[in-house]
Amino acid sequence: MSAEKTFLDSAEQILKVLALLGAVLYFLYKLTNGTYIFNLSVSLNFDRRSDPNGGDDCLYLTIRLKKGDVSTIELHDIQARVSYFMDGQMTERKSTFKGLKRTQPKRSDASLEVLWDAETPLRMGPGEETQFSTLIRVPAATICFVELAVVGKRAYVGFIPAAWKATAFVPPVEPKASGEGTPLSGA
User: Fold this and answer.
1) E strand segments, 9-143
2) How far, in Å, CA of 121 to CA of 76, rounded?
3) DSSP 113-137
4) Which class is domain 40-186?
5) 132-142, pLDDT tens digit by residue?
6) Is 1 a residue whose pLDDT tops 70?
7) What pLDDT band is residue 187 in, cutting at 50, 70 and 90?
8) 122 has pLDDT over 70
């Protein structure tokens, strides 16, 4: 009976270790495949306006981010790439969205000031929304293809970065009868 009890105690210990190892592997798998970080809604809006002086069009891009109800995300980078054909060649222009770094309050004398160049990434908590904008000049009368990329990770415990993308085709500004362009907006 003593050998049987020793065997059962050993088997119980082995099963406990295997159960613990399985739980750890399960949560590591969930953490690395993005279960806890892919909880961000991304939308891209554009507004294209022609230059009254006949130069390049102004393409205003606005990205709206809405955080879901699970955990906090650190935003590390948001970039846009605009592609268009010009003279038979594909041309690209890139732009980084400003305001991605978090501002920090700084006490000076009796008032608070803002440190605009703080190096900490912007964090979005559950349920938060924000937007960023940028301007890219594009040749008039070209159809543009806009690609947007957002890079971030789960705050505090995230090891693997995640990426979100959005795309849009932006047609040229339609000219008025007088020859001036009219604004064209889209979402």
Assistant:
1) 40-49, 57-67, 73-86, 89-96, 104-108, 111-115, 122-124, 129-138
2) 6
3) EEETT--SBEEE-TT-EEEEEEEEE
4) mainly beta
5) 999 999 999 89
6) no
7) low
8) yes
Count of CA atoms in the C-beta half-sphere (13 A) of 121:
17
Q: Is the dihedral of CA 20, 21, 26, 28 positive or negative?
A: positive
pLDDT score of 61 more than 90: yes
Q: Which residues contact 162 (CB under 8 A, 6 or more apart)?
A: 34, 37, 38, 151, 152, 153, 154
- Return the exposure string of 43-65: e unless at least 16 CB atoms fall within 10 Å of the residue's CB, then b: ebbbbbebeeeeeebbbebebeb
Average pLDDT over every residue of 72-88: 90
* Burial class of residue 67 in the structure, from the number of CB atoms within 10 Å of its CB (0-12 exposed, 13-18 middle, 19+ buried): buried
**Domain edges within the chain:** 1-33, 40-186
Nearest to 84 by CA among 47, 57, 105, 66: 57
pTM for this model (two decimals): 0.69
Give the pLDDT confidence score for residue 66 in this predicted structure.
Answer: 95
With H, G, I as helix, E, B as strand and everything else as coil, classify residue 40: strand
